[in-house]
Design brief:
Two copies of one chain form a homodimer. The first copy, chain A, folds into two domains: 139 residues, Aspartate Aminotransferase, domain 1 (Alpha-Beta Complex), CATH 3.90.1150.10; 242 residues, Aspartate Aminotransferase, domain 2 (3-Layer(aba) Sandwich). Helix content of chain A is 37%, strand content 13%. The termini of chain A are far apart.
Chain lengths: 394, 394
């Protein structure tokens, strides 16, 4: 009954637990305050009708022996994989290279099983905490977090890294809300190739990109299929955070240094540690990729982008640098010092402290646009009122 | 891009892949043959009406902003955990000790993250292959598989093992279909305690137990809460193999040798490597544990038990020892030699070769009762015809 030593290496103040405690303390002090959460990136808007119809149709099928099905194909429903290949990869990636899962987060941890026990890992700083925590729990000891800050265009100086096996890279980025440019991703691919490293590219927010010059997938970069795995998700695009549906791409061209296929091993890992995404969720994914579903997905992502535009408008008069928000519904605001507690107590607004995403996030707050329009508008009113009060006060 | 060395340790002829190949070869040879599968344990019968209603109701809720929800509580829906505590554990286990997941298989791999990097692992032989494969891929090197055969009542001689950290034990057992008795499980718990080891008890088939003297959970044994984790599943009970819903139990009384809580670490592992079972599936689980749902679950499990009773009737006249089938819809038949190919070619019936579950399964075949009644009856007709033909031939 020995404990996995790696637990001791985890940061004890796990971001969201810490926030919960601070909020509980505030609520105890001010029980009547109406808190607005611009914190955790959970969706607030209902599942659109044609996608919901796809979910219900599957249940209708599961109620009749003739159309009932149990375990699906181990890589996931073929129709869904074909639609993903077409919709997200213009068929540059084939259905055989796509693996349906219950979400990008779950794939992030499992993927480490592919590589050597002691992989050298490079992360962005700030970063989605799961890349770090899963690496630590898997026993990885050589982990570097490279600063991604306004002054380097949120793109780390990878060139300084001598040896690396795995690079986690998220674009559009959580927490900064900034998408990498094509030039930056070319540099990333070229760096990975020069070090014989694998990129794990997290494109969970790619559906929010509107600027056609920004890549939505790492495979838009030439040669990426030889050095990159992509993880992605329906969660934020169609209100599926609770329904659970994502996918990974492991190209057949991706080989280990010994020439063996990474794809074959990933099939084995998925068959051993996973048993398929819910067939109901998969039917919803198929519905989301019909013309009607795609339009609904666009409407839903537009809604959250408009939320974040409104928030930006309310924060701008404060005069602090604001990043992100155009390719993902997160704003990353540089206050130069910790302001979580102040937003909680003065505006009754919950944000996410940047330091929760790594040391380079210190002094930043993340504002999420995933709330309801009513909440966002109320938040903007509170922020604007305060600003005009401050201005008139001077 | 180094490959995880542990892949090389996996058995290359992964059971189901091997079966697929043999079947493909047979089909190419006899394209008109109507094959009946009594092989992989997938369910064939539709989801019962009141459970399906629960699934659909959740989608209705997800379509309206006021009742929409995204990420659920990280341990899973509280109502579901309370119902599981009551229905399966008579509240001897509390809702706080239950973690909802997407299935027992997925928990089996994740659970190893709790324990020291080099855990000494004991399995039954034969065994569900996932215990072994996940252990190998996680880098475990000290794995013993103890024979569980008719002559030891399918209960290994644990006493011979000096040092062990983790014991995987499945009852009712896959592949043998045999449930451990209360005396055997008392011995198992006492053995685990004497070695300060943890039992990972897989009760995915407990819903098929009809004999009231047989334990349905390890926690029916006194003291088990101090040395056992249980994994279980709705898959086979309500036709959820494709819908995906299971749970694990990590009692608060379970401590590492250093006195720290295993439960706290499991919360952390689940929050890092998992993101919740589908909320739709969870609503189905709640519906399955209403009085109406429980009745439907009983009807469905009775159906498969009747299937396996019919199969037994057809196999008995062949004169080979038949085990299992009363507490799980699997028959484990001791032919004394490999008969997979013969059943395929002579009866056009697919079975699972016992050797796929470990060396001690050599000479056995597993027959699954999860097919439709029509298929089971057709299989029994083919088997009986053959037997009477053989008899008249003598």
């Amino acid at each position: 009954m020995r404990r996995n030593d790696n637990f001791a290496r985890l940061n004890k103040n796990y971001l969201f637990t810490e926030i919960e405690k601070r909020v509980a303390a505030f609520k105890a002090k001010e029980p009547s305050a109406k808190l607005i959460s611009l914190s955790v990136g959970d969706t607030s808007q209902s599942i659109p009708p044609s996608i919901a119809k796809g979910l219900v149709q599957k249940i209708t099928d599961l109620q009749v022996n003739e159309t009932y099905s149990g375990y699906g194909p181990s890589q996931g429903d073929r129709a869904l994989r074909e639609k993903i290949a077409e919709a997200f990869y213009e068929n540059k990636i084939s259905a055989d290279e796509i693996f349906i899962s219950d979400g990008a987060k779950c794939d992030i941890g499992r993927l480490q099983l592919l590589f050597g026990e002691k992989s050298k890992i490079v992360l962005q700083n700030p970063t989605y905490p799961v890349y770090l925590d899963s690496s630590l729990l898997m026993g990885q000891t050589e982990i570097s977090a490279l600063p991604a800050l306004p002054d380097n265009g949120f793109f780390p100086e990878f060139g300084k890294v001598k040896e690396v096996d795995l690079i986690y890279f998220c674009s559009p980025n959580n927490p900064t809300g900034v998408a990498a440019t094509k030039e930056q991703l070319k540099e990333l691919v070229s760096f990975a190739k020069s070090r014989c490293a694998v990129i794990i590219f997290d494109s969970a927010y790619a559906g929010f990109i509107r600027d056609p010059s920004l890549p939505r997938s790492i495979y838009e970069i030439e040669g990426a299929e030889e050095c990159a795995i992509e993880v992605s998700s329906f969660s934020k695009l169609i209100g599926f955070t609770g329904v659970r549906l994502g996918w990974s791409v492991v190209p057949k061209a991706l080989k280990y240094e010994n020439g063996l296929s990474v794809h074959d091993d990933w099939q084995r890992v998925m068959a051993t540690f996973f048993n398929g995404a819910s067939n109901i969720a998969q039917a919803g994914g198929v519905a989301a990729l019909t013309p009607e579903g795609v339009e609904e997905m666009r409407g839903l992502t537009d809604y959250y982008l408009e939320n974040v535009r409104l928030l930006r408008g309310a924060l701008q008069p404060m005069g602090y640098p604001i990043y992100g928000g155009e390719a993902a519904p997160y704003l990353w605001v540089d206050f130069g010092e910790e302001r979580f507690q102040e937003f909680l107590e003065r505006y009754h607004i919950l944000t996410t402290p940047g330091s929760g995403f790594g040391s380079a996030g210190k002094g930043f707050l993340r504002f999420s646009g995933f709330g309801s329009r009513e909440d966002i508008l109320e938040a903007t009113r509170r922020l604007k009122r305060e600003v005009s009060y401050q201005n008139s006060d001077r």
